[in-house]
Amino acid sequence: MSGGMNLTLRIWRQDGPSDRGHLKTYEVSDISPDMSFLEMLDVLNEQLNAKGEEPIAFDSDCREGICGMCGLMISGDAHGPEKTTTCQLHMRSFKNGETITIEPWRADAFPVIKDLVVNRSAFDRIIQAGGFISVNTGSAPEANAAPVPKPKADRAFQAAECIGCGACVAACPNAAGMLFMGAKITHLGELPQGQPERWMRVVKMVAQHDAEGFGGCTNTGACTVACPKGIPQDVISTLNKDLRYAMTHHGG
Amino acid sequence: MTELIHGMYAEGAPVVDTKAPAGPIDKKWTKRKFEASLVNPANRRKLSVIIVGTGLAGGAAAATLGEAGYHVKSFCYQDSPRRAHSIAAQGGINAAKNYKEDGDSTYRLFYDTVKGGDYRARETNVYRLAEVSANIIDQCVAQGVPFAREYGGLLDNRSFGGVQVSRTFYARGQTGQQLLIGAYQALERQVSAGTVEQFVRHEMLELIIEDGRARGIVARDLVTGEIETHLADAVVLASGGYGNVFFLSTNAMGSNVTASWRAHRKGAYFGNPCYTQIHPTCIPVSGDHQSKLTLMSESLRNDGRIWVPKRREDCDKDPRQIPEADRDYYLERIYPAFGNLVPRDIASRQAKNVCDEGRGVGPMVGDFRRGVYLDFSEAIERLGKAAVEAKYGNLFDMYARITGENPYEVPMRIYPAVHYTMGGLWVDYDLQSSIPGLFVTGEANFSDHGANRLGASALMQGLADGYFVLPNTIRDYLAKGPFPKIDAHAPSVMAARASVEERTARLLAVNGQRSVDSFHKELGHIMWEYCGMERTETGLLKAIDLIRGLRAEFWRNVKVLGSADTLNQSLEKAGRVADFLELGELMCIDALHRAESCGGHFRAESQTEDGEALRHDDQFLYVAAWEFGAGTPDPNQPGDSMGAPVLHKEDLVYEAIELKQRSYK
Fold first, then answer.
1. With contact defined as beta carbons under 8 Å apart, do A127 and A232 qualify?
2. CATH of domain B279-417
């Protein structure tokens, strides 16, 4: 364990949705490498509070890398230099004396609310459009009635690991939500339970995605690099394949 | 009403559950469902229900009531219902499917849960929980929840602490996430269908009671700061547990008691507040900066072996250099029948004991090392690294990320941490609180886990309540509605709004010297020290004194910057900590009054010769349901006033199960 670090932080401050916002520079010292990135911001916020400056607003909740609430652009990388969520990023990934730039997710579909907090409700609306299997409580058949081949179950699981944090959108040069959407299409599309609504689902979700102002996919792969859960890019291929089939066979 | 006992509380009339029908235990739920009034589908859309919280209990209930055709308003403080803290549950969900043909049954799940809870849960509720457990799995699979499967395509199971059958369904170490996404998707489907209105980034700050019935809430829009009134025919709290009263816990940063506490202040009884679960397998505290603790799933105890060195002088050695003969696999030694799979309360207390003896490992915290090894070297040798990785890979990665150590090479270090609260608002068999029209589900109620919860039972309870229990019981209440329309300017509404506005203004006006977090940390230290894994009369009395002092200082000296009409996270935290400062006192009073040990509540004065929890069924075979004691405002004690609480006892009646001293040896 090495000693405390001194860091220069350039942090986006924005009073509200209509404020222009700006980067402001702060210094923090004696930061333990065992701290998480968000705990480092907690320390800064305690200092600001003591000085009478309003603390920096940022989202986080579980701080275990699973709820998807946190998410910051850290020196240009969504969730920072490691393949994990911001809350699971630790200060041992940084060097003493480093300057770190901290910004919110940047996308038209994710407007800034305040400082580093953005509105991601567009993701909820994409799910509302069709990201579900229609089964009312009580009407389910016996759980083992429909066996699922293990490779399909495993692929469904891998896609279902998406935490809806929005890093894929933030990392994408087009601010597309295709990895997020592809993950849901793949999760439900691999399972027998998801078949009845498969074609309708993809058409409706894509329409909502476009209406929300997300950009189009040009297969740069930046999304999958940023994804803290390692959702593979081929979920986008699955989405495109399903969409093509739905449009040609079911009239869209 | 009696004189004050210990100078702390009074005793009131007993309380009884009047909703569980008479008859054999396996017929009660069917009977209750039949007897509960029905609401005709055409009338359902005229009835409205507010549901606070979107975890498994709240999300599932909102979706199900929406499907049934009621008008639902769903609230969460997070930016999306999918983020509720149920998502962080790792290990699994129990269900009496008996797919392994290993002797499981509804009755055995019921029996294990009551025994695991150290005979302090209500028998009727637990039986129902076991009864509906199998339906949950069916429902989740139909929604597309990707549970682990075998090569034949059928569902896999594993075993969990406190039981000897394999009845736990799981989705790697992300079971809670997958179940919650299932409930969330069902909920979003109803939002799209127009039956559910969704309010995200909203926090309930007051309950509205009109004519003796819960009729609405006052909520703050956390983005605009606007104080809003929402009215309905019934209110459901599914707002989770209160483990964050300890500051450091495995709960999410935002998990709080405010919704429950505001209802408690308005007359809802609080059941068994001192029953707290300290989970044995968490990553140890590393320093003062820490904002939360991280759980490592109990499922790890299936293959990992827990040990400490036999000798103190070995404690700072590299564990790989300590030969087998010098290791003490203390759980396997003390509990040969259950070994590393003893219930959580027992595993935690034994970890504390070996560390108190000076045999803990890892860095010194104060005078002791606070950690024990969880070692997979034997499992890796037996199963191969790949198999261990397939089962626990994500947990190992998480451990490596947080500690910077590689658990495939070096044994993990773990230590107990606050994880779950069995206590919660008191409810009857219908999950209705002592306020008519106020229902409480999931971790927020007290009902199913007694004094200790078994692993993989929280997800089961959340979904049982949300999908199958509440939708069937609340209709009996709603059938009496719709209740008279309430004017937005009715005195009850205006008073609730005024109290929220006044409190918010007061928090901002103190403008003292100390941050909200500094108060929260200090409260957490008091609770952990005196109301944690071991409790004593002197300690609890001291804690109550300290908490009262801290609460008074909070209202004199807290510093909350910013304003009320914008996103203000310090203000949100301040309101939650203010309520924790009141709850902490009630927890200590409850722990003080219960002069026995049971489950996670260990009173040092009451133990067997081998140091196990010693119950006193002759004196304490009851649920402690606490009524808020309205105090008289004291000008020298700014902040909300609190009087002496009133204890109502609900006797626990065991007809289907014989009371025994718990043994896992």
1. no
2. 3.90.700.10
